[in-house]
């Protein structure tokens, strides 16, 4: 089963935000989109990842306003129906209490450990995934099909950059008033980015810096060591 060329781990949550009113048309587009990802990535096997309904993670328990900016935002048309379709028809990895990004990263590294001579990539568009050294097949429509080999150094930079600027999509504030230019200045010549960011937090938040640092760290840091059992679907095309 594992004598393969390429395994593609697909972030299925990205498929839930297309405003397509006709449900059958929506399902057809998802089927075609998944096939296109597998064909263009030359994948022989794959697995899809979808966050379960009413999911509560450790991030939300630790920081109550994590993703609070999404709570009152209206979901796209057919959001519920399409998630049900993915859960029922694609046998996705979906675990209560864990986000898809955590599972994608954990599967990626577990697969590389178990099958070091096979190729694996993540198909997605979430910048959080690039805080780890991975091979990523970009699914954003303007960059669709671009493959990024994220290096250890690039991943380290990306994470500590987010620790300073935050992530507005998830309501993660970062350091108040500190944006792109400040982050670039702090990180550009730093030999130890973790220490450099700690110093910035200490300068800004004084005695409360550790609490603030931990809050941002927990929200931003993906889990990469979840114990998983690798089970894949075969990429078959008519």
Q: How would you describe this structure to a colleague?
A:
The chain is α/β, with parallel strands linked by helices and 238 residues long. The protein folds into 2 domains: 6-151, 5'-nuclease (Rossmann fold), CATH 3.40.50.1010; 152-220. It is 41% helix and 11% strand. The protein is built from 8 helices and 6 strands. The chain has helices spanning 23-40, 58-62, 79-89, 100-114, 152-165, 180-188, 193-205, 209-220, and strands at 6-11, 45-49, 119-124, 135-138, 147-149, 233-234. It has a 6-stranded mixed beta sheet, with helices on both faces. Strand 1 (6-11), helix 1 and strand 2 form a beta-alpha-beta unit. Helix 5 runs parallel beside helix 7 and helix 7 crosses helix 8 (209-220). The two termini are 20 Å apart. The mean pLDDT is 93.
User: Would you tell me the structural class of the helices and strands?
Assistant: alpha/beta
Strand order of the largest sheet: 5-4-3-1-2-6
Strand content of the residues, in percent? Answer: 5-15%
CATH fold annotation of the largest domain: Rossmann fold
What general outline do the C-alpha atoms trace? globular
Q: Considering DSSP H and I runs of 4 or more, what fraction of the residues is helical?
A: 40-55%
**Main beta sheet strand tally, sense and closure:** 6 strands, mixed
Mean pLDDT: 93
CATH superfamily of the largest domain: 5'-nuclease
Number of domains: 2
**Terminal Cα separation, in Å?**
20 Å
- Unreliable parts: none
Give the name of the CATH architecture of the largest domain.
3-Layer(aba) Sandwich
Number of strands: 6
Rg from C-alpha positions?
Answer: 19 Å
CATH class of the largest domain, anyone? Alpha Beta
Q: Please, how many helices? A: 8
Write the H/E string, N to C. EHEHHHEEEHHHHE
